[in-house]
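Morning F.,

Quick status update on the modeling queue. The single chain you submitted on Monday has been processed. Sequence for confirmation:
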Amino acid sequence: MTVPIIDGVSTLAPRYDAMILDMWGLIHDGVAPYPGVPECLDRLREHGVRALFLSNAPRPSDKVVDRLRDMGIRDDQYERVITSGDVTRDALSRRFDDWHAALGTRCLLIGPQRDWGLVDGLEFEMVESVEAADFLLNTGLYDDESEGPADYADRLARARDLELPMVCANPDLSVMRGEKLVLCAGSLAKAYEDLGGDVRYHGKPHARPYEFCFEALAGVPRERILAAGDSLRTDIAGANAAGIDGVFVMGGLHAEELIGDGQSDPSPALQDFVMSSGHRPVAAIHRFNW
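Structure tokens below.
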């Protein structure tokens, strides 16, 4: 399979009634929107394509909406934001399956202070040590600018010895923040799994975030929904599993390896990258633009 590289989403827009859009690496870099993105959102709206954001941000969606406004993305440029934080809160509050029902009530939150709002209103006792916890809630590293999984090795080993389950509120391994690669909750979850720890993930590429999206897009056939994102591992894998098309944005997380200095043809590297991943986008694009 050869993945075509297209100039803009205008090529695809007539085939779809709605788009499920990643945020980090597609809409913005964690600091500001990418050039052309606000204009692209306006053009989608003009052409009757519903835009819905699906993010692996481990925060409630209202916090993400505030951040979008700060970046200059208007409320009328999209229909709704759904986050892995929303999905996590739903799972922790409803305890909808045996695994979540058995978690207990004493929670050790591992993650930066900006994510602590994830547990607001949930009926947990927040504890400060592995030994006091019934389960771990992982939203990321306390300091993602300087830490890595090795800094958590002892804590994770103690949690594994106690057979504590881990809820991971962001399956991403890493993202680009401006020009810097920073690690996400998924990197800690992977380290815990490597130790034999029991982890449940809430976010792309897993099924439940897409169930939230399909509920929001009730009445839109799946063949008329397109997902877009910069991660084959989460965005395109999730789209494939959910039965919808996906377009891969090369200029986000994998920009250096696929685009480089922008002078070379990215197609050979793209085809190898896609084939080795096992995930299949219908097309690829440099940036999310019209």
